[in-house]
Amino acid sequence: MTTSTGSVSDAVRESALRRAFAFPNPVNEYAARSTAGIVVVLSLAALVLGLAAGWGWPLWIIALGFWLRVAGGPRYSPAGRLAVHIIAPRFGKPRLVPGPPKRFAQAIGAVLSTAAATLWTVGLGPVAWVLIVLLIAAASLEAFAGFCLGCWIFGKLQAAGVIPESVCEACNNIALRRA
């Protein structure tokens, strides 16, 4: 039997979990691009270390960073915090963009980097390095050209009805994007 106290406790717990795993919305595009630049640098270093010294363990660090950003945006991620608090403010006034597509892009990076780390761990290094090159390409597009491939995929999935419009109202409504 559920008491009114139990339901209040459940609501407080759910609210605390929701806050702990909240992703910012909107997101400063300069912070997102800076984070992507950090991913490029870390991934290039991992690729060089992997090919030169056979080290694949840095792939796990890259994957962890993505999962931390998926879980709570920059809050739990050292790279995200560096981008938000140190690098992005140097670009001036924030340029705000919707958060849900950025979280989706981080999730794609998490899956790709985790797959690469897992493949390296089970002895399939060459396939892992191909995935890292793809990750470097996507992160480079974001960092240097301002084109978020994951956001583009998000938009296509939303247009196809796979992702409900309610997930990102600003993605659908041009007036909200301008606001």
Write out key terms for the chains shown:
single chain; 179 residues; mainly alpha; 9 helices; 2% strand; globular
Descriptive notes:
By secondary structure, the protein is mainly alpha-helical. The chain has one domain (about 20-179). Helix content is about 75%, strand content about 0%. It is built from nine helices and two strands, in the order αβαααβααααα. It has helices at about 5-20, 30-55, 60-70, 80-85, 100-120, 125-145, 150-160, 170, 175-179; strands at about 25-30, 95. The protein has a two-stranded antiparallel sheet with strand order 1-2. α2 (about 30-55) packs across α4, α2 packs antiparallel against α6 and α3 packs antiparallel against α5.
Brief summary:
The protein contains 9 helices and 2 strands, in the order αβαααβααααα.
Number of discrete helical segments: 9
Q: How many beta-strand segments?
A: 2
Order of helices and strands: HEHHHEHHHHH
Main sheet makeup: 2 strands, antiparallel
Strand portion, in percent?
A: under 5%
Structural class given helices, strands, pairing?
mainly alpha
Strand order of the largest sheet: 1-2
End-to-end C-alpha gap: 47 Å
Mean pLDDT: 92
How many domains would you count in the coordinates?
1
Helix content: over 70%
